[in-house]
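Q: Could you fold this chain for me?
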Amino acid sequence: MLVELAIGDAYGAAFEYVPADVVVRGNTVAGYGRHPTHAGLEPGHYTDDTQMTLALAELLVDGVEWTPLALADKFVEVFHRDPRVGYTSWFHAFLRSVTTGREFLDRISPGSEKSGAAMRVSPAGLLPTVAEVREHAALQARVTHDTAGGVASAEAAALAVHYCHYGLGPLASVASWVSAQTGVDWTRPWTGAVGSKGEMSVRAALTALTSARSLTALLRECVACTGDVDTVAAIALAAASRSAEVARDLPGVLYRGLENGTYGRGYLYDLDRRLLAAVAPPVTDPAQLHGSWSDSALYLGQMEAESVTFDPDGTGHFLWKNVAARERTPFAWSLVAPGRIRVGDEVRPARIGRGTTATGEDTTVLTLGEDRYGR
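A: Sure. Below is the predicted structure, expressed as structure tokens.
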């Protein structure tokens, strides 16, 4: 999800608020372009949409309670560790001037209805219940966008991810479902250029999502809106990447061309896997574990592989191997509490949920302590 979001952000950034004729000529999805006026934004580099999304994803992965101070601390941290352009000039200057979350909260004026709270909220959509999604989406929105429009658009963007990730219905009904959960009508189709308000970006993203069948077509449609298209694309691709209805057919050049520095493509892939594991539901039935699980499909380029097998009779084994050797370690196992598995003499937390392979395909992932296995 995070990789696709970043691709939508980086691709759309070249077309943000450019004239419509420039969009028509250049929106080919054949590679990254350069914005005609935004100095310092290199082709394939993501913007504030992705950077602030990383803040929320990392909080979920680390199991940190979402409080205004924790959120503000993380926003400051992710900016200062990797300063970049793409923010509004005012907010960029504000982030440069603060060094702690407390200073952030003391000085921020959270009266904006713009799209900042919606563009970053997608990780919250992976949480297991609608109530949790709405609570987290609203909480993070109020730190910077404590307005009716700011909160509502953040909740809607997160719920779109939730709907797709948990397969709650056909994609054509996503806007209707989001409307039913929030009491706000999101079904009216968006037309025309997208302005800076969160409601505009989310409505445009939901309009594109309802007819999406492939990520490539969706990306082109988002950018064709004109206006604040990097935000529209980030919101829409984050949700669509979690839908089984949407073909993952983005051109390889967009994956290869996505920036790959310290917090680039490789980091996003790894954080994606850790995020999906962190929000997966705990194991509640021993039968969920029965069979073999392997890490071989989850990591690219590994020289060795480990698998774990849980047999119905309460025995099992780990199997480690490389090209030259293999080692089998048997154990007895049992489910001692929801989400807690005794493996030999050790009790480990255990979660099972939807995840992705190293090549972006859907799989089921078992998280056993710090280790992850798929099948």
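A (continued): The chain has two domains: 2-279, 286-374.
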